Amino acid sequence: MTNKQAFPSSITGNDSEPAGSVLDHKFGTGDPYTLGVEEEYQLLDPETFDLVQHIDTMLDAVTGHELDARINAELMQSVLEITTPVCRNAGDVMRWLAKLRGYVTEIAHEQNTRVGSAGTHPFSLFERQRITARDRYHALIDQMQYVARRELIFGMHVHVAVDDPEKAVQVVNGLLPHLAPLLAMSASSPFWRGEPTGLSSSRQMVFSAFPRSGPPPRFRDYADYAAVVGQLERSGCIADYTHIWWDIRLHPRLGTIEIRICDAVTRVEDAVAIAAYCQALVKQLSERHDGGADIPSYHRILTSENKWLAARYGLEAPVMDLGTASRNRVPVARLIRRTVADLRPHARELGSERELEGVLAILGRGSSSDRQLRVYNANRDITEVARAIAEATERLPISV
Q1: Cα 15 to Cα 2, 12, 216, 241, 362, distances in angstroms
Q2: Helices 222-234 & 165-175, crossing angle to 10 degrees?
Q3: Distance between CA atoms of 219 and 168, rounded to whole angstroms?
Q4: I need a labelling partner for 128 at 20 to 30 A (CA). Which of 80, 121, 255, 260 fits?
Q5: 74 and 40 in contact (C-beta within 8 Å)?
Q6: Residue 327: its pLDDT value, please?
């Protein structure tokens, strides 16, 4: 994991590597549990708060700046992606996200643009978005057609370094029951095409049309994973493993586990809290593996059902408690609180304990999806929702 290329764009495969090299990896080449975060932002008109096609002017404006390499284009010209360097703990993530959000907000204002972070835009239409003029994006549209054209969604991805490929496979398996809590915490897309969908995360429904998306299959070991990905590569189905868009995936070239389930998070404090939660989870599961303890694993149908419930109901989701023998349904918020209690010692050792407590703050004030719906229900004004997203995204802590 090098700072320059730590967490490149992951939707379009511009971090591709030659076919057949999937067995090569960098697990164990850096310190375990280091972090990196990617966020995808909306570029907004300052008056109408509709999406605007300003990525080229934004990139021109940042050219030559020290943060230039951390600000990138995405599939559509109304999307801007930022990537942190490798961070040791969630406090580092806060400092970098605040710095990056602050800088892109400043540049956007100079370009008569606003910045927003949420899983979907409340009312903009994908038909009105222009595709970024780069070969790789045009190739994706040519391959995916309508499925890619309507992919007007925004995510947050968290990378956590692991020091062994076999361990990484088992940790991914162990993370599957946590998809629902992570989605419930990050849910920020209750609107699609100007309408409330009744879902906390509409982004999940849109992205589910992509091939090789959703929860990953459980692999026995790294060789099992490499064989499957190698077959996809050799047959020409994919150029490389970055064209696999599972909710959690191995990223061998970086030596990380990439947690991709989360909607783009509006408040920077919430993004940092979720990153701390992910980091501590990976540490907990890694140490369980190191100690020879079993990592609990559950049928894909069960973890997928819980994910659906989280996408539908958010923090009020009545999910199955897979960690108990009864597997009764309980509020997902109860599971999150229990997990935070279990993770505190790990977060303390990582130096991320204070940031982990931010998860409880999310439970207290609600997710971005909850806040968007409160704004909308006050006046039924969808533009107010987009304005509130921009204001909350651009509001940064006074000191970090």
Answers
A1: 13, 8, 20, 10, 33
A2: 90
A3: 11
A4: 260
A5: yes
A6: 78
Distance between terminal CA atoms of the chain? 25
Interatomic CA distance for residues 265 and 154, integer angstroms: 9
For residue 331, count other CB atoms closer than 10 A to its CB.
17
pLDDT attached to residue 399: 55
Evaluate whether 167 touches 221 at the Cβ level (below 8 Å): no
**Alpha carbon distances (Å) from 141 to 30, 52, 151, 156, 195:** 36, 20, 10, 22, 26
User: How far is Cα 311 from Cα 183, in angstroms, rounded to an integer?
Assistant: 7
Measured distance CA(340)–CA(359) in Å, rounded: 8
Please count the CA atoms within 13 angstroms of the CA of 154 that sit on its side-chain side: 35
Beta-carbon contacts of residue 63 (< 8 Å; ≥ 6 apart): none
pLDDT in tens, 21-30: 447 899 999 9
The type of residue at 291 is G
Under 8 Å between Cβ of 266 and 117: yes
Q: What is the DSSP letter of 397?
A: -
Q: Mean pLDDT across the stretch 237-241?
A: 90
Q: Are 248 and 258 in contact (CB under 8 A)?
A: yes
Q: Which two tokens stand for residue 304?
A: 């997928």
Q: What digits encode the pLDDT tens for the residues 341-372?
A: 999 999 999 999 999 999 999 999 999 999 99
Show the domains of the chain with their CATH numbers.
35-394 (3.30.590.20)
What are the residues whose beta carbons fall under 8 Å from the beta carbon of 292, sequence distance 6 or more? Answer: none
